[in-house]
Design goal:
Strand order of the largest sheet: 3-2-1-4-5-6-11
Order of helices and strands: EHEEHEHEHHEEHEEEHEEHEHHEHH
Bound molecules: NADP nicotinamide-adenine-dinucleotide phosphate
Shape: globular
Mean pLDDT: 94
Distance between the termini: 37 Å
Largest sheet: 7 strands, parallel
């Protein structure tokens, strides 16, 4: 299949593209002026940007499917989320509608659990429930979803991903570092969350791409079957690292909110987008980041292969081999 991938330089893209190539697909990637170096010889690199549909004409030309991984997780100001998640998706959708690649079959969008929002209690939120994002990041992902649903003239699948971890992920690396150092800061105390290993995310994306009887125009929550407490995640990493004691420090809102505001200010001064901003504070204030993937498994027949311990084990091997830890 001829598949175009945005955001190939990111954590998920870096895991997705080699697997697409290994499975014999032809891959085209979008290269923006700011993109990091594309490490694969055999992919077709197309220069473009998300500024307008016209700037993506060559990118969508003759393509059979698009996996839209690009998105803004880090920001300096709230507007960055709207531009990086909503406007970029809108322009890409408009480009597909405008240039109508003749053999185009499917559009896969990597959305986020943040778009559906947290639960109020220990009952996992279902995709069918009305979304209630609490952050600008989540709102911008939901705006992008809505644009796809209401405007794309071709079949789509929207994957609302739980927290993704695995080789190349710098966010979960922090968890490993905290445990290694023996002190784990927990903003707003313990929480509950869904996680999913990046190889399972890649497996789901490729399965949707290759599916003959196309499941179309659906939104799926992609996660491990089980949700976890943050303490359980810490315990798992602790046992993998052979660490005997880890002190968990609960940080009240009155401390972490101003701290993240300061980090945001530092990002504004340095001009370097950060994940540690006041938008993140809104997400960290929530206790139950739990969703229900049952419908995904039932309707697609797909299952995740990795449980938390297996995924964390492989991730640790990768961190060690690449001297990240
Ligand atoms: N990682 C997770 O835990 C997680 C969870 C849920 C959902 N997601 C979603 O999955 C997608 C991929 O996540 P990831 O972890 O791979 O993210 P990532 O490592 O930050 O990579 C995202 C890629 O998107 C492009 N990009 C960054 N900022 C952008 C902007 N302002 N406008 C347009 N493109 C921009 C960049 O690629 P180029 O410079 O090459 O264009 C970047 O490499 C994102 O849409 C994210 O929202 C991720």
């Amino acid at each position: 299949m001829n598949i175009a991938v945005t955001g190939s330089t990111g954590f998920i893209g870096q895991n997705l593209v080699p697997e697409l190539l290994r499975k014999g697909h032809k891959v085209r990637v979008l290269v923006r002026d700011s993109s990091k170096k594309i490490p694969w010889e055999e992919v077709e690199k197309v220069q473009g940007s998300f500024h307008s549909p016209e700037s993506m004409k060559e990118f969508v030309d003759g393509i059979e499917a698009i996996v839209h991984c690009a998105g803004a997780i880090r920001a300096i100001k709230m507007d960055d989320f709207i531009r990086g998640n909503y406007t970029s998706t809108k322009n890409l959708v408009d480009a597909i509608n405008q240039f109508k690649p003749p053999v185009f079959k499917k559009f896969i969008y990597l959305s986020s659990q943040s778009a559906q929002g947290p639960s109020k209690e220990l009952t996992p939120r279902r995709v069918e429930q009305p979304p209630e994002p609490v952050s600008w990041y989540g709102k911008s992902k939901l705006m992008a979803e809505n644009y796809i649903v209401n405007h794309l003239e071709y079949p789509y699948i929207i994957l609302r991903l739980a927290t993704v971890y695995g080789p190349g992920d710098r966010e979960t690396l922090r968890f490993f570092k905290y445990v290694k150092n023996g002190i784990f800061p927990m903003p707003n105390g313990d929480k509950y969350l869904n996680m999913v290993y990046v190889k399972d995310v890649v497996k789901f994306i490729i399965a949707f791409l290759e599916m003959e009887n196309l499941i179309r125009n659906k939104i799926y929550f992609v996660s491990d079957p089980e949700y976890h407490s943050l303490s359980e995640v810490i315990e798992s990493i602790k046992s993998l690292l052979g660490k005997r004691t880890v002190i968990k420090i609960s940080i009240p809102e009155a401390i972490f909110k101003p701290a993240l505001k300061l980090s945001e200010l530092a990002a504004k001064i340095s001009g370097k987008p950060t994940i540690a901003n006041s938008d993140k504070a809104r997400e960290l204030s929530e206790k139950y980041w739990i969703g229900d993937p049952t419908r995904t498994f039932r309707e697609t027949g797909l299952r995740t292969d990795y449980n938390l311990m297996e995924g964390l084990f492989e991730t640790l091997q990768w961190y060690k081999a690449n001297r990240w830890l």
